[in-house]
Every structure is written in structure tokens, then in C-alpha cells.
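Q: Got a minute? One more chain.
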Amino acid sequence: MDKREDSPMPENGPIVDERDREQPLRETETELDEDDRLKPAFVRDVIELAETGEGEAARERVGRLHPADIADLFELARSDERPMLAAVLGDMLSADVLAEMNDYVREELINLLAPEQVAELAAELDTDDAVAIIEDMEEEEQQAVLQAMEPEDRAAIEDALSFPEESAGRLMQRDLVAVAEHVTVGDVIDRLREDADLTSDFWEIFVVDPMHRPVGTCQLSWILRTPRDIAISDVMKREQTLIPIDMDQEEVALRFQKYALISAAVIDRGGRLVGMITVDDIVHIIQEEAGEDILRLSGAGDGDINEPIRETYSARVRWLIANLGTALLASSIVGFFGGAIEHMVALAALMPIVAGVGGNAGTQTLAVTVRALAMNQLTASNSWRAIWREMKIALLNGGTIALMAGTGTALWFGNAQLGTVIAAAMVVNIFVAGVAGVAIPLLLDRLDQDPAVASSIFVTMTTDSMGFLAFLGLAVASGLTSL
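A: Always. Here it is, folded:
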């Protein structure tokens, strides 16, 4: 889909003056802080210039920025300032800028554009980036944009949209270079130079058989260093990692990480080459998936500061309601031992310590387990080994904390029996927390539920309830409350 053309190359190859190469970089860096984020003063200046009608000055300042930094500029501006900024910058709000932009901010700006304008921008992008722009639009608006596109581009987008969200079919680029295995290196070089319709961004060529099934890959560096008369089949690498078109993007990212891939061929159900995925897309996926898991553990929804308030409220409040229910369960256990607490007030002061430490222990184990599941490090083949490992760690942690808590309690309250009770409760609750932290996400994963979404609530419920039950139950059973 990428319609951009490369600039003509001088006869003896590209000649680049290093001073010309570095100067724009230095100018851009002056607008960024040490973390490569736009400086607040620069953002304010651009917005003020736009608001006061000095659009040309605003455009001049923004013109030195990389598309990703222009996208950051829109994200840093207030929601009510973005339409004005888009109008002032005009064509600087390019397809590349939209591709780099936060989903919510991009949706705001696209709503300001006519379908024909969105179609024009999408046509300038690779298929995967164009799909990212169009897939979240309302059905009616989506169809209007597709109707405004060229037939070839529309067919590619519609094909991508037919695959599940977050699948390789949505993620892949359709534009690639594929050659037959019987051609020579010279034939490949001639085609790369003469075919104006080839994509301009690639580093690997795919070799296919007559059925268009990939049989190998060949890096551009190999081709450039090989004599013209050598067959491409003698240069290519036959071992390759193929990505099924319906594979989940998280699994795709794991394959790229495991096999250190730069790009990979995507195949349909018949094994035919239909696209490729490159590492620049995978970096985004890894960041996105990791962020999703962290936010789901806390029940914070998408956790995007640009997300509409209503959506954020809806995502968070349901988990708070669920937490309220689990808290009521824990409080009912405390209520059951109300008489014992009245008899010995020290129990009321100490029982939150038992539950709190157990909760932290469970959260530690839960975080490690969810990450291991996401990275495919924890599977059915080693799940029991992981559970036994966490049991041992929990016993070691429980013994250490129990010794410290028990000794401190005995000295502070002058009651050795109370110290023994809290020490025993600590061991029990931390052990239960360790088992729950690994067993609950494993169980949810076996039930095809996302362990990052609901695990924290069940683990917290278990550690709170067991903490209160163990401490108060041991206090009553030991006769401590009758003294």
C-alpha cells in the first residue's frame, strides 16, 4: 500500500555530507529533554503560536520534529487544543504521524477528517498501520473510508479486517518481495532496480515455490555479496520461522524474541506466503502486552491517560465492587471472632499485619507467575515443579517473617504465647499466599481465562480471609483469649 517513492540515486551511489546528516538531528534534540520527550516550554510555545494566529511560526518549529515527536505534541496538548493545532499544522499531520499516535488521540483527530482524507492518509501507509487507523472506526464511517480508497488498497484492508483482532493477519504487511527459487542473484538484483511497484522498505527477500509457499529467505547483504550467476536457491537460508495467519500477536512476539527475528513470513492455512511481520511492529506489541498485563493485575482498565473518563470509570469500578465483595467476606470472618477480639484488644491491632504481609507475599508470587505464563515459561510440563518451588520459598519467607514478628510481638506486649500465635499465623498465611499466587493464575489459564484479569482479586481474598482465620483461630484454639 505504501505509495512513497525513493529519491533518485546518483550514478555512483548516494553521496551524503555528514554535516547535512547531523544538523537536523541537533536542531531536533534542542526541543527534547534527556529522555527524548518534548520539553514543556516547546509544547507551550507551539500552542501559543497557533492560538495567536502565528501559524507559519508554529509550522516552522514543528517542521524540525520526527513524526513520532509530532504525535507526542498532539498527545501532550489538551483535548480542546488538538483540533486547532491540527488545523494550523495542516499537511504536517501526515500518515506517519497518525501511525505513531496514541489510539484515543488519533481517534479524536480522525473524527475531524472527511472519509476521503482518511482514505488518502491510509493509502500512504503499510497495510498494518492503515488497519490500525481504520479498525476502531464506527462501522458506517469505516465503510465510507473503504469506499473512498483505491480498489487494490481497499481489498487489502478488508482482507486484514476479516481476521481476529490482535492476530498475525491484522499485524502483517502485505507489501514484500518474493522471488522464485530457480532465478539467479542477477535476476533478483535487476528486478529490485527495475520494478517501481516494489515496496521501498525491506531487508529480506522471501523465496517461494510454484505454489507460492515459502521455501527460504535471503538477506539483501547476501545478495549484494554474491556473484550474479549464482542461483538464489544456493544462497538462501532454508530454515525459517513461519507465522500462521491466525496466530495471536502475543505468541508472534514470543517467537520473535525466542528466535531473534528481524522479520518473518506469514502463511495462510494452505501454507502460502501472504505477508510478513517486522520487528518494529513487534517492539510495539511487546510493550503493549506487558502494559496490559500490569494494568489488568490492578484492575485499572487500559490505563491510558487519554482514555475517556467514562470508559476509565467503567473499567475500574467493577473491580472495586468485586473487591468490596471479597472484603465483606474477610470482615465476616473477623465478626465471627468478635468476642475474642473484645476479650483481647491486641488481636485487633495485630491481625491486619498478618493479612497485609500475606497479601504482599501473594502479590509477589502472582506477578512472577503471570509473567511466566505470558512468556510461555510456565506450561503444563513444569507447573507442578513451579508450585513446589513456590511452596519452598513460601516456607522460607514465612519462617523468617514469623521469627521477626513473633519475637517483636512477645517483647512489645510482654506475652510469649501471643508472639507464638502470630508467628504460626504468619507461616500459615504466607504459605497459603505462595500456593495461591501460583495456583490461581494456573487454574485460570487452564480454563482459558486471562490470569492477569481476575487473579489478584482471588489471591487477595484468599490471603485476607486466611490471615484473619489463621490468626484469630489459633488465638482462640490456644486459649489465649481466655487468659
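A: The CA atoms of residues 32 and 369 lie 38 Å apart.
Q: Perfect, thanks.
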